[in-house]
Design a protein that fits this description.
Layout lengths: L5 H15 L8 H8 L3 H13 L3 E4 L5 E4 L8 H9 L23 H17 L2 H5 L16
Antiparallel strand pairs: 1-2
Helix pairs in contact: 1-3, 1-4, 2-3
């Protein structure tokens, strides 16, 4: 079964939380931890990864906290997931050509390619601003609440 890890899930929750506050506003890690039920020690490690990848900025000391490094409408779900999970691959044959000796003759290889491209496209079209507002811009669905 392929699924997002806890690290990925918690990173998404954290980034949606930061996207929901006015841009540039510092948020305490303890507040995010409490509101989203993320163990604070684990969250600090996730915040370090997000900061290293340039998605957030942190400020230490009294009155410190974390904030988005750029506006939420310029950050996507794909940005967040790849910052903590690495590049998204549905199958090992998609990591690099020639990884699997059956690439050229495998009946399902092209399906994996199409599915991976579709997943990346969808994740890349969902901005944090859109998710934070609780509205998914998809006419075929009713608006949903963001990951809560």
């Amino acid at each position: 079964m392929m699924q997002l890890s806890k690290t990925g899930e918690y990173a998404v929750r954290t980034m949606i939380h930061l996207a929901a506050v006015p841009y540039g506003e510092l948020v305490q890690i303890s507040d995010i931890s409490r509101q989203w039920e993320i163990p604070e020690g684990f969250l600090r490690k996730i915040v370090a990864q997000l900061s290293k990848d340039g998605l957030i900025r942190s400020q230490r000391g009294a009155g410190g906290g974390v904030r988005l490094s750029r506006p939420a409408d310029t950050l996507t779900l794909l940005d967040v997931i790849e910052a903590v999970e690495g590049k998204v691959f549905l199958n090992k044959c998609l990591i690099a050509p020639g990884t699997c000796h059956l690439d050229l003759t495998c009946a399902v290889h092209l399906v994996w390619c199409d599915a991976q491209q579709a997943l990346r496209r969808i994740l890349n079209t969902k901005s944090l601003a859109e998710l934070a507002s609780g509205v998914i811009n998809d006419r075929s669905r009713e608006p949903v609440r963001a990951l809560a």
